[in-house]
Design goal:
Layout (H helix, E strand, L loop, with lengths): L1 H30 L20 H17 L2 E5 L2 E6 L3 H17 L3 E7 L6 E7 L3 H8 L1 H4 L2
Antiparallel strand pairs: 1-2, 2-4, 3-4
């Protein structure tokens, strides 16, 4: 009888230990950051991302926007371009932005309108190295 009692106690202790180990592993998996690393693209314009018609439209919009730039703010990780808040500039930016992002997916892009009829801003930023890429690719916008 004592042997059965010892076996039952031992089994209970081992079962409790196994259950606590399983619970600890589950909690560790749930609190750990995701292990899948996000793929980072290289710094170059993917000319195949746009159709010839889209590429032409992007170039036309770039010319229009380049001449409409009122000012530039250099940021630690990119640039912010200032435009007058008229609807034509806003429309051009909203059409240009997805085209630019398609061929340069490494950009963080935002369009911002200030309240009370304030300025229109187009922000182009990204990870380390993107600022130098922007400086080269948007040189006509920056050095006007």
């Amino acid at each position: 009888m004592k042997i059965l009692l010892i076996i039952a106690i031992t089994a209970t202790i081992l079962g409790a230990y196994a259950a606590s180990q399983i619970a600890a592993e589950r909690q560790a998996r749930q609190s750990a950051p995701p292990t899948t690393a996000q793929k980072e693209t290289a710094f170059f314009c993917d000319r195949t991302a746009l159709t010839p018609g889209q590429r032409k439209r992007q170039q036309d919009l770039a010319k229009t926007l380049r001449t409409a730039v009122l000012g530039i703010q250099e940021l630690p990780d990119g640039f912010e371009f200032e435009f007058s808040p008229d609807p034509a500039n806003y429309q051009a930016l909203t059409e240009f932005t997805p085209l630019e992002r398609a061929c340069c997916p490494f950009f963080d892009v935002s369009i911002r309108l200030e309240r009370e009829g304030g300025k229109l801003w187009w922000r182009l930023t990204g990870r380390d190295g993107v600022k130098q890429f922007i400086r080269a690719e948007f040189a006509p916008w920056i050095k006007r």
